[in-house]
Every structure is written in C-alpha cells, then in structure tokens.
Write a structure and sequence with these properties.
- With 719 residues, this protein is α/β, with parallel strands linked by helices.
- The chain has three domains: 2-188, Chitobiase/beta-hexosaminidase domain 2-like (Chitobiase, domain 2, 2-Layer Sandwich), CATH 3.30.379; 194-498, Alpha-Beta Barrel (TIM Barrel); 529-713, no CATH class.
- The protein is 42% helix and 14% strand.
- The strands form five sheets. Strands 10-19-18-17-16-15-12-11 form an eight-stranded parallel beta sheet. Strands 3-2-4-6-5-9 form a six-stranded mixed beta sheet.
- Helix 6 links the parallel strand 11 and strand 12 (236-241).
Length: 719
C-alpha cells in the first residue's frame, strides 16, 4: 500500500537534502531499529572512503575531468546509491544499516552494490546496464560502471514500489514484511543511450533537485548541471542552440575582419545581426577557417565560460528558411545540408585536437540538426558518413508532425513526409541519431500535450534502427498532465522500441493508480478527453496553423484574401480530412495559386467540446479523502481549464474576423463584434495571469506571447 506523497517546493527539497547530508556527515542522523521494522543491510565498497558522508563530501573535490571510472569516482556514485537505499527504504519502514566493505556482516537480509573489476566485466551490460541477482531475499546489483549500478538501485527501489513523479512529488510504499523486499532477478540495458529533455539555458544551471529526479527515473539528458552532481549521477548536460553562431558572428568587428566567414547572397557577404532570435543569414559553412574560429570560441567557453558545465553542444544554423550561402565554395561542397555536415566534421576535428593537447579537459560531443531546410538529404552522403563513430549525434526535429493518431497509421501529408525523411536519412549511414519531440513549444502555452495515447507507437516508428537520443523540448516546472509524459518517457526510452502494448499499458495504469488512488479511472478518462482535445495543437497553434492564418498571414504578405481565409476557417472548425495551408517549403503563395496540404485532425469545435467535458469531469472528481490527490486533480483541472480557454479564444477570434472583415457574408457575427471583443480580451487577460504560462524550466523560453490583440484580425475594411 502506498502512503500519500509529499509535495514541496523545490527550494524546500534542496534544503532537506543538504541538511540530511550534513547530519549524516556529523553523525547526528541515524536510523535505529524498532522491534517491528524489517532489517536490511546495504553492503558497499567505498574504496578510499570510510563512510557515506566522506564519499559525499569528496564529490566536490575529486577530478571528474579525466578518468571517469576511477576508484574515487566509483566510490562517490556508489555512496550516493547506498544513501538513496538508506533514505528511501527507511521512509518505507525498513531499518537500513550500511556496511562499508565487500561482504555483509549482520547476518540479515542484504543488498550488495558492486562495480565489476575489469577482468570480470560483461560486454553485454555496456556502460549503463546492470545485473540484479536475487537469492533468498538477498540482492546483488552489479554493473560494469558506477552509473550502471546506480540504475540498478533505482530499478530495485522502483520494483518495491517507490515512485518519483516530479522533483517535488513522490510516493513511498509502506513495507512491513521482509518478503516485500524480494525482487525478481533481471538484466537490463537501456535501448536508448541519451534520454531526457532539451532545456536551453544561458548562464544558469538546472536545480539539483531536478537532476536528481531525472536520475531516479533513469533519465540522463538535460540542461547545464553542476559538474560534480551530473558526473555522480551519470547525467549529460546538453546546451547551445541557434544562438551560439549568432552570438559569435554578430560581435563587433568580426564581419569587418573576417568577411569570408559570412554567407554570400547575389555576390555580397551577409552580416549576422545581434540578438538571440535564432533567425539570421547562415555563415560560410564551407570555409574551414570559420570552423576553426567557432571551435576556438567554443573551447574557451567550454573550458571556463558559460558552457563549462556542458557535455554535448547543440550547434545549429539559423532557424529560418532560404538563407544559405550561395558562394562558389559552398556550391563546390554540395547543397546546404552538405555544407553544414562538412562544418560539423571540421569543428569536431578541432575539438579532438584541443582535447589531445589538454586545451579541453573532457571530450565534447556535437549534436547536429535536421530542421527546416536541413531535412533535405545531402547530395553527397559521404559528408554524413564522415560523422559515424565520432562524438556526434544527428538529431531530427519536426515541428510539422501531427499529434492526431499514430504517425505510422496516419495518411496525413506531414506524417508520410516524416516517415519518408527518417527512412532516407537512416539508410545513408550508421551515424548516431536521435529524435526531439515538440510536446512543448513557445506556441503551446497552456496546451497540455501528453501524446500518451500513441507515444509507444510513435517512439517505435521514429526510433527504429537504434536511435541514440530521445527527448522533448522545454519541460515544465509543474506539468499537470504532462507529468505523465515525463513518466512514460523515462520508461519508454529505457525499454526501447520493443516495448509491448501490455507493458506500456501497465505503466499508464501504474501512473493513474499511483497518483490518483480511488479516483484513478475518473482522472484517466479526463486525460483521454484532454489528449483528444489538444491533439490538433500543431494545426491550431504552431506552423502554418489556424493561429498563423488568422493573425499573421496578412502581415507576412502571403496573399490570402479575407474570403479565402474564411473558406479555410471552415476546415479548421470542422476538422476531419481538410486541405490547409502548406509548410513554407511547399509554397507561401495565394490560396488559389498553390496546392494545399492534406491533413487529418480534430476540428476546433469538437476540441472545445472535449476540453469542456474534461473540465466538468475533473470538477466532479471527489478526492476529499486525500489532500495530496485533491491537489493533483486541482492542478490537472487548471490545465484543462486553461486549454479550453485557448480554444475559446480561437472560436471568438473566428467570429470577430468574419464579422469585421466580411460583414455582408456574416451579419450575425458583425452584430456580435462587441461581445467577441470583450470575450477575447477577458480570456487573454485570464490566461496571461495564470501561472501555467510561466512554467518552462528554461528562462529562454517565453510562452507569454501566445495571443495577439483583436486589432490583428482587422484586414478587410478601414477603421
């Protein structure tokens, strides 16, 4: 039986952890055995350290930059693993004693943690896998590496009932019988090497509590994390993005001194303007001197600057379209994808030399990107193959992919295009690749996309062939329904594409029963309504969407008349199979001059009805028996209410657009213009004041500019 979890602010949690470590170090905290508590001995070899406290204190003092699997490093991670066993099992009612050594001494049930010596290591375990042996209630957790053993410990704790839903929220089982500590023998090796989140940061660090929560769920990829903690936990810091090149190349005098670094358009070099928008004219990726300049800049920042806590650098071109170098040097390399891959290879050469010379204290990986223009295959596959077996992972980003149904079953143009593109890239060479999902985006403020209805199938479709990285963009501090997404991501990325439907369903069931107890079925039903209600988020909010059509296309001079827009609006309202404005690469011309893109999605009116039903269902959940469950339901209700408000905004915006711009065709909407306007302003104000749009962990992600005023809808007549 589970006790209710505690929900605290991350600041309180950080303080509790620090106080606990301090008390352990000074001997003021101990666990004494009660007559009714089962006794468990944790056996761990801490090498040069005599206690858990000594190993914990050493974490900040040892050199993590060199050999990652030395005796000190192993002791620090194993000490943390033993401390986790002691801390959490004690909360469950177990009397836990830690024996520092290589053999049990108490004659009681024990858990022994061991990093296998080099002669005994098992290649099948790799550097993150573990073997868990169980005999007569005694457990041995072994791995080739300290991180593998740590993952084995978290598997053990998970198996006896512990859950960490978020950094501030966990469930602890109540264990009264030693038999409840017995777990099945197993060998586990993660199918995906890098599992987690894209959390871009500048000059900031992820909070310790978040990194620890990730490790407890065997997630190992996030934003910048202080060195000793991320090394101890085996978590990789991933940072950078479009801004890196823009920052370097917009600095004063760089253009004047090195014009050859910059891309050419119609024979003229194009400067990079200051800012962090990520939209700029791409430099001369064909120029090896540019690669040297960029690598030297990054080496400095990785060694002692704002990237010093980063392991994987996301080095991305501009996020815009059709802004590529047209110089003869670029054409000689190939298409724009060829030039970018050529650039990555050159920068990696510099990184490798810097590491060999001691200018870089650690190996650094680059994550390249297929996004917008660079989804195009290289004309010369050799440029891609050169990146195989190097510190490189090629990551695919597709903001145009729909959340309606599973990708593999969809006949929508965007889904078929994604499958074809991925297949073509994978056939080119054995290069490490990954997928970053758009479960959150600046445009998705207050829209709780979970993808939990199809996440298993979508993972298998995209990661087939052995992907190395799976992540999603911009996780939240308090995710509401997306807490389920985080939970599933950790398990799915670990287990891999072979996850069965039954196993996946067991995880979903565990989530709802664990978090919501006796109201699990009611809340799960509301989650299904929410998931279906927002599955058209891409078509409503993101690229070439209803938002774009209503508010932006006139100002971007895409040429649709008010009548043409109104005709397209019917498709967004009704849903089903519709022809909608295509992606920018397909054509941005007039409605009657370019083919539209075939898409299947749920209509706005149906989505709004589903979300309102979800709000009603959550309002009627009786969680009075548990304050913790009630708090969780209230958080989900806030998300469902906010999502419904965003869809209501669009419904009123359509009426306002038609009534203002086409009064002859929509006289009823013209009469309602004052009501539409008042409702738009009210909903916009309510959404702007909710904490849900201020939830991204990264301060670089602004979700507050999710709506434009009614004046942006006025295009068809004079004031």
């Amino acid at each position: 039986m589970r006790t209710a979890s505690r929900t605290l602010s991350r600041y309180v949690i950080a303080s509790v952890i620090l106080i606990a470590v301090a008390l352990l170090a000074t001997g003021f905290m101990s666990w004494t055995r009660s007559t009714s508590s089962p006794l468990l001995e944790v056996v761990v070899d801490l090498g040069p350290y005599e206690s858990l406290a000594a190993a914990e204190i050493a974490a900040d003092d040892i050199d993590w930059s060199g050999q990652d699997e030395g005796e000190q490093q192993a002791a620090v991670t194993l000490g943390w693993a033993a401390q986790e066993l002691q801390t959490w099992l004690s909360r469950a009612g177990i009397d836990v004693r830690v024996t520092v050594g290589d053999a049990p001494v108490l004659g009681e049930q024990f858990v022994r943690l061991t990093v296998l010596p080099l002669p005994d290591q098992r290649p099948a375990l790799g550097d993150q896998g573990f073997d868990l042996h169980s005999e007569k209630g005694n457990v041995s957790i072994q791995g080739n590496t300290r991180v593998g053993v740590l993952y084995g410990v978290y598997h053990y704790l998970d198996s006896v009932g512990f859950r960490w839903w978020s950094p501030e929220e966990w469930d602890v089982p109540r264990i009264t019988d030693p038999a409840e500590l017995q777990v099945a023998p197993t060998r586990e090796v993660p199918e995906t090497r890098l599992r987690g989140f894209w959390i871009p940061m500048k000059g900031e660090l992820l909070e310790d509590s978040y990194a620890i929560w990730m490790a407890r769920n065997r997630l190992n990829l996030g934003g910048p994390i202080r060195e000793s903690l991320r090394k101890k936990l085996g978590v990789y810091s991933w940072n950078g993005g479009h801004r890196l090149l823009q920052e370097m190349l917009s600095r004063t005098q760089v253009f004047e001194r090195h014009p050859d670094f910059y891309g050419s358009l119609e024979g003229e070099r194009q400067p990079v303007r200051p800012g962090t928008t990520g939209n700029f004219f791409n430099p001369s990726f064909a120029n090896p001197r540019l690669a040297g300049f960029v690598a030297r800049n990054l080496v400095g920042r990785l060694s002692g600057g704002e990237l010093r806590n980063v392991d994987i650098v996301a080095l991305w071109p501009s996020e815009g379209f059709d802004n590529w170098d047209e110089s003869p040097d670029a054409r000689a390399i190939g298409n724009h994808t060829d030039t970018l891959l050529h650039f990555y290879s050159n920068v990696l050469d510099h990184f490798e030399k810097a590491y060999q010379k001691g200018n870089l204290e650690r190996p650094i990986s680059i994550s390249g990107i297929s996004f917008n223009d660079t989804w195009e295959l290289p004309s010369k596959p050799a440029h891609y193959k050169e990146l195989a077996n190097r510190d490189y992972v090629h990551v695919f980003y597709d903001p145009e992919r729909s959340f309606h149904g599973s990708i593999s079953d969809s006949r929508a143009t965007s889904s078929r295009r994604l499958i074809r593109r991925l297949s073509d890239w994978k056939r080119m060479g054995d290069v490490a690749f990954g997928i970053t999902e758009y479960f959150n985006n600046s445009n998705y403020a207050a829209v709780p996309i979970t993808d939990h209805l199809y996440m298993r199938e979508n993972f298998a479709t995209q990661m087939s062939g052995g992907g190395d990285l799976y992540a999603y963009m911009h996780p939240l501090q308090e995710g509401g329904p997306r807490t389920l997404t985080d939970w599933l991501l950790g398990r799915l990325a670990w287990r891999g594409a072979s996850t069965s439907e039954a196993e996946y369903e067991s995880w979903v069931k565990d989530y709802f029963e664990g978090r919501y107890s006796e109201v699990a079925d009611q809340v799960r039903g509301a989650y299904v309504q929410i998931a279906h209600g927002v599955e058209n988020a891409r078509e409503m909010f993101l690229r070439n969407s209803l938002f774009d059509l209503l508010f932006l296309q006139h100002r971007l001079e895409r040429g649709y008349s008010a009548r043409e827009v109104s005709a397209l609006l019917d498709g967004y309202l009704l849903g089903g199979w519709q022809d909608i404005p295509p992606s920018p690469k397909v054509g941005l011309g007039r409605y009657d001059g370019f083919p539209l893109e075939r898409a299947e999605f749920r209509g706005l009116d149906e989505s709004l009805s589903l979300l309102e039903d979800a709000v009603s269902a959550l309002e009627n959940v009786d969680a009075s028996s548990s304050a913790t469950v009630r708090e969780r339901v209230e958080e989900d209700l806030a998300w469902a209410t906010a999502a419904a408000s965003r869809y209501k905004l669009f419904r009123n915006a359509i009426g306002y657009y038609r009534g203002y711009n086409l009064p002859d065709l929509f006289p009823a909407d013209e009469r309602r213009l004052p009501q539409y306007r008042q409702t738009i302003i009210r909903l916009n104000r309510e959404l702007s004041s909710t904490k849900l749009i201020h939830q991204p962990i990264s301060s670089l992600i602004d979700q507050t500019r999710f709506y434009l005023p009614p004046e942006y809808l006025r295009v068809g007549r004079a004031e």
